[in-house]
Amino acid sequence: MISVLITIGLFVVGLVLLIYGADSLVRGASSVAKKFGLSNLFIGLTVVAFGTSLPELVVNLFASFRGSNDIAIGNIVGSNISNILLILGIAALIYPLTVKHGTVSREIPFSFLAVVVLFILANDFLMDGLQASILSRGDGLILIAFFIIFMYYTFGISKSSAEEAAEPVKTYKNYVALSMIFGGILGTVIGGQFMVESAVKVATMLGVSEALIGLTIVAVGTSLPELAASAIAAYHKKSDIAIGNIIGSNIFNVFWILGVSTTIKPLYFSLALNSDLILLIIITIILLSFMFIGKKNIVQRWQGGTMVGLYAAYVIYLIIRG
Length: 322
Known about the structure:
The protein is an all-alpha fold. It is 80% helix and 2% strand.
């Protein structure tokens, strides 16, 4: 019992270090970038975007090096499912989200493309009849190539966006900013290691699969920065930030995080995760269909409630599946 409490405690400590480390790194790096004369919009599209995806990246790298493939892939798939059903659902419950036409016509379909590409690349057994399914280094490079295309598109549309649309960046003295950067890196590394090691131990002690832990506890934990950002944005009625944060994070997770992870070290893919990938494809289609049901281009409160309910049902299914 004591060992269980210690393991859970280490997981919580790791999660706190991971989140606060990523936040400290983003604020420190943003301050340095601002002092170099870079625009708020550029900082938001690069430093902040990469920073909010840092928890998933660190957890994935530690998981892949430990050989915990189900945690690494489950973290990404689970994070994307929780981003849409749980986080976007909660944000819509707080305040109905008005979605821009560009998000409906381009960004949500792009996130749908990300899942479909991942499904195809991961399923060597189904596609080519091979004995094992693996996300190879070549697959990782393909995902990164898609990510570069997405970033090119993002910078393209940013040219027509007003600088005032971005949040102002707070600056710090140079030594403070550098301390925040190095402290943030240290916090994310230690936190990520604690989270992965304790997640493996919890799975072993409870007799459940690492995939279950990756799809639920680890996935939601690494998505807490997105939850906080989207909930606060919805409260302040900034719909673009709330939904853009979620869709952008989903694209980052597949193309960037999983791309980098598999390029560094190939990941074996468990066919049991196909049901979760298919669910992610379905809920992305549901999200897109919500744009045309009821009030056009608005995620309404009843739709948010439906998504949260679907997430609760999904977690129950995972527990039953074991």
